[in-house]
Design brief:
It is built from 2 helices and 7 strands; from the N terminus they run ββββαβββα. By secondary structure, it is α+β, with helices and mostly antiparallel strands.
Length: 143
């Protein structure tokens, strides 16, 4: 490294450039603490960025998982709306004529003072697979 001569007082002395220090013999050498300092600073910055990225990922994932759980619960709630206590129904006339659907007969009914259509499932259709298909039919009717 270079040395510039400084003459502020009675004696001249040598001052090393930025990034250099004097060794035991008075020569300017690269200051190793600047290199280590730069590496340490870069390492700390990378560590902080890694931590921030991890925290952001965690909270984003947690929020996404919460939204999925809310949507699942909403779907369960909507499905349960279509299952009612039969004691609250007043069945009137059968409205599907003489041709019942694949799952049962359809009736005009009253539920909590509201006129509704009710599909009365046949007993033999109480199998889980059939119930799933019936729920799909309900989804189609909703849309």
């Amino acid at each position: 490294g270079s040395c510039k001569v400084v003459l502020p007082g009675p004696e001249a002395y040598c001052e090393c450039d930025f990034g250099f220090t004097k060794d035991d013999r008075g020569l300017c050498r690269i200051a190793t603490y600047y290199i280590v300092g730069s590496s340490t600073t870069a390492g700390i910055i990378l560590l902080v960025l890694l931590i921030l990225g991890t925290v952001r990922f965690y909270f984003t994932r947690k929020k996404h998982k919460q939204r999925i759980e809310e949507k699942d619960q909403e779907l369960v709630d909507l499905t349960n709306v279509w299952v009612v206590d039969s004691r609250e129904l007043i069945l009137y006339d059968r409205i599907d004529g003489d041709t019942p659907g694949g799952f049962g007969e359809v009736y005009k009914a009253e539920y909590r003072e509201i006129t509704v259509a009710v599909k009365k499932l046949q007993q033999l259709h109480r199998i889980e697979r059939i119930e799933l298909e019936f729920k799909r039919e309900i989804e189609v009717m909703r849309s």
